[in-house]
Amino acid sequence: xxxxxxxxxxxxxxxxxxxxxxxxxxxxxxxxxxxxxxxxxxxxxxxxxxxxxxxxxxxxxxxxxxxxxxxxxxxxxxxxxxxxxxxxxxxxxxxxxxxxxxxxxxxxxxxxxxxxxxxxxxxxxxxxxxxxxxxxxxxxxxxxxxxxxxxxxxxxxxxxxxxxxxxxxxxxxxxxxxxxxxxxxxxxxxxxxxxxxxxxxxxxxxxxxxxxxxxxxxxxxxxxxxxxxxxxxxxxxxxxxxxxxxxxxxxxxxxxxxxxxxxxxxxxxxxxxxxxxxxxxxxxxxxxxxxxxxxxxxxx
Length: 300
Description:
Layout: H1 43-55, H2 59-68, H3 90-110, H4 116-129, H5 138-145, H6 151-171, H7 175-199, H8 203-224, H9 233-246, E1 250-254, E2 259-263, E3 266-270, E4 274-278, H10 281-299
Antiparallel strand pairs: 1-4, 2-3
Helix pairs in contact: 1-8, 2-3, 2-7, 3-4, 3-7, 4-5, 6-7, 7-8, 7-10, 8-9, 9-10
């Protein structure tokens, strides 16, 4: 297995975010938002969030592994779009922007366009509510959701889009919403992966699930920066429970000898180090069950 630090940039949330110059219909924000004292609004913590995003497997990679496991598409493991209207606070709305975009990544890999429109509509509704709807090009989303042949281009555009959205939120002292979007996407992506694993055991998917041990540790550190916001307590408590289970998962690092090769006339040094996940079936079952419980608690 390759080193878990060699993944490319985007998180699942980035799989459908597209930048547009159009405006959006906005609603008033929660009075609690806009606290410039929050550490997530500082440049130092922005760098931490960027590093976290880089440590998470790309939506293309994770969802491709899910599809290649042989598991059939299962619409029942996604979040119901009919529940979008029950999220009335900006904290809930931001978290579920992440959740629904993770579902979009799953939909696109399986090319199930019949589910795309409702999911895109949910993302648009929630993103408008938190005043970042201008970063979502609804028509382009519909078009690209019907064609997953250009995933590299979509991925590149998506990274820039999320960065613009994150920068905008920070400029408004609302960096905590970026954190919630990331947290929601991470949970839903892991939920889809574990539910797929439960139905179709797959070695590579098992590794991806185990690797989330490190991602979760970093995510919790960033969530803790917002602990003074009451609405974050439930998320932090639930993710802390998951983190306690993940502490039993071991990651063995295997040091490799660096190799060299010539690329375009230049000498390139490659790191051949690797890592191995050590996770028992019992541990995987515990993690899968707890993720289901945590997700149910946070989405109700």
